[in-house]
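We give the chain.
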Amino acid sequence: MSDYFKSIKKGAEEALVWKQGRKTGARVRQYTAMDVAKIRKNAKMTQKEFSESFSIPLSTLRQWEQGKRVPQGPAQTLLRIIAHDSETAIKALHHQ
């Protein structure tokens, strides 16, 4: 068995133990829901405009707004930047 496989196996086993409510050595990241619709509306954009401006698939944006999915990692960071200053975010992304 390769070291790579052993690592994957260990991770899977830790995930199962964690899911059962027991402590493991695994780091767990939990993302909280964001009010994506509010961020978009504060930017004064339609779903289509927001999607195109920030290269977010329209279906993903809709799922975030409906609470079916939660933005994670870089997407949450981008949304925080947009919430803070949407005009600057747009300018930065479209600056050539």
